User: Which sequence fits this backbone?
């Protein structure tokens, strides 16, 4: 089993929560099994006890943990009806995300086409920086990664020079961010789209609208296909 990654500087509690969720995903604790003490978890993750305590309370609120005062914290025994309710919520979330992605694809395809025709050297420098930050954020937790990813895509939309496209993208962004963070936290087998992002940057650098559209479609439809397959 892989060692738990230590949270980086920043919003510590969400990072501790992500680390604990990852441990659950790895099967570190069986249902009903007692977790290590707050002191032990804090030492393992390299954070303070208060951060661990807050993260534990968040996970208890989500039903993953059972905090028993005077006894300790245990991995929750999930009843069948709770599992079924969770599965229904997950199906609804995927359906909503697929609809959001359909809107996102329509906006970003046209934005990529327009951006390829008007991008400047200084714009490419900005995009390169956005892409590097996205790559660095891959190990910084779901929220940090999603924020870095969306920053890259927002820059592309801005470079389209179309204020209406940018306004529509900005309107969709809060819902998109929320759904993407949930997807990164809960979904497995998500495609690695680093190459598609690099291909988009290369297409913009070449001033090639068709290649920019192709890279954008590959990026977004890979995720849409994954969502649709998980619904079946």
Assistant:
């Amino acid at each position: 089993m892989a060692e738990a990654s230590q949270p980086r500087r920043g919003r510590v509690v969400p990072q501790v929560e992500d680390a604990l969720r990852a441990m659950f995903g790895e099967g570190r604790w069986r249902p009903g099994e007692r977790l290590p003490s707050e002191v032990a978890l804090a030492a393992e993750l390299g954070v303070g006890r208060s951060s661990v305590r807050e993260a534990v309370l968040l996970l208890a609120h989500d039903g993953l943990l059972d905090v028993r005062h005077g006894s300790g914290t245990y991995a929750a025994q999930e009843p069948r009806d709770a599992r079924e309710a969770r599965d229904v919520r997950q199906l609804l979330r995927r359906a909503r995300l697929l609809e959001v992605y359909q809107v996102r694809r329509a906006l970003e395809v046209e934005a990529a086409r327009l951006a390829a025709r008007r991008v400047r050297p200084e714009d490419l420098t900005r995009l390169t920086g956005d892409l590097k930050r996205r790559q660095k954020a891959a190990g910084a937790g779901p929220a940090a990664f999603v924020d870095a990813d969306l920053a890259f895509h927002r820059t592309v939309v801005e470079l389209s020079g179309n204020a209406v496209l940018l306004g529509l993208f900005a309107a969709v962004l809060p819902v998109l961010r929320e759904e993407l963070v949930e997807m990164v936290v809960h979904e497995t087998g998500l495609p690695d789209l680093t190459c598609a992002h690099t291909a988009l940057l290369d297409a913009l650098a070449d001033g090639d609208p068709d290649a920019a559209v192709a890279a954008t479609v590959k990026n977004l439809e890979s995720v849409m296909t994954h969502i649709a397959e998980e619904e079946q």
User: Anything to note?
Assistant: The chain has nine helices and two strands. The two ends are 30 Å apart (CA to CA).
